[in-house]
Amino acid sequence: MTSIPPLIPAAATTSTTQSRTPTPTPTPTPTSSSSSSNTYAIISKPNITQIQFGPYTLKTWYGTSVYFSRNEGHELGFKDCERSKVGVKPNKDNTSTISNADTTLDQLDSADHDQMSNEPWLDKLYVCDYCFKYTDSMGQYQQHYQYCESLQKEFVFGKISYRDSKHTIRKIKGSKHKLFCQNLSLFTKLYLDNKSVFFDVDHFQYFIIYDNFSLKPLGFFSMELLSLERNNLACILIFPPYQRQRLGRKLIEFSYALSRSQYLISGPEKPLSPFGLVGYLRYWSDVIGRLFLEKGVLANVETVTIDQISSITGFRCEDVDMTLRYMEVLFRSDDTGKDVVLDLNRLKEWAKVNHVDSGKSSDMIENDCLLF
Ligand SMILES: [Zn+2]
């Protein structure tokens, strides 16, 4: 059973239009694919030229068909539903809500689109930077801001799971705030190529990071409620205007803090995207490197096993192993040529050369601020 497709127009004043060309950076970015096997969203290149995202005009990084109708060329999918009047309920902000999930998902399944076309499908998509509702009409976009409940404090939803002097992280259940999570997922696909869950959000929870003094989401990660592999993260994205502030690292740290609170050795869903892999390797190597520096808990050990590093950090053994190989601190024993041995001196040297004791690699999540 598939769930309700998102729809809809958003609105808002586009005050200062700030052009940016987002550069994919390893730190706060994307990661893994999600568990669904949906493939209909995959388009070989960006098919929406620009996104108006609050005051920011952004280029998209990846193509997506899930915003579009299957039946009406390259029109937005919700218009299809408005025409057919399948369970459409007009809202006061000139938006709509579809109630017939199966019909609509089928309508939105655009596998038949001409994916080889060189023409963009849409010149500009307007996306509310508070609730992620969308439209191709600037007028509707501007009108939406007058009614968008996400701009009003009394309508803020989600349970606060973390709050320090700068940021708040809220937990939002996909089953409870379906439309928000679906629209968030659709937007994410523009910047995370292997994002594959758009509508079936019931089985996920979403951790959204906010500046303490704003209701505007800066980024998020999703997590499966029942993960057989006990993954602590399904996908992660810091929205383009807010990247390069180390928010991705903060969310990754938070995901491990969450696992530790449940006494779990855990990690992200695999396979990781290339960007996700780079981000995680940096994080894992920083944390592991610090264990062996002067004040680290393993500073004075003469031998250590991957299991020990795993239990101290909460990282999976396979991730510790991959990180040590990335750091090039493993070698084969001279005696047998089979045993792999960790070269502690080389590891400490790696940590110093790569400045893992600097402020940049220090913890960003404060344990006292965890609220779960
Ligand atoms: Zn909105």
TrEMBL record:
Domain of life: Eukaryota
Presence of keyword Transcription: yes
Pfam entry (one): MOZ_SAS
Gene Ontology terms: cellular component: NuA4 histone acetyltransferase complex; nucleus
Keyword line: Acetylation, Acyltransferase, Metal-binding, Nucleus, Transcription, Transcription regulation, Transferase, Zinc, Zinc-finger
Record: active site: E269 (proton donor/acceptor)
GO MF term set: histone H4K16 acetyltransferase activity; zinc ion binding
Enzyme Commission code: 2.3.1.48
SUPFAM superfamilies on file: Acyl-CoA N-acyltransferases (Nat)
Stored InterPro entries: Acyl_CoA_acyltransferase, HAT_MYST-type, MYST_HAT, WH-like_DNA-bd_sf
Name this protein carries in UniProt: histone acetyltransferase
Source organism: Wickerhamomyces pijperi
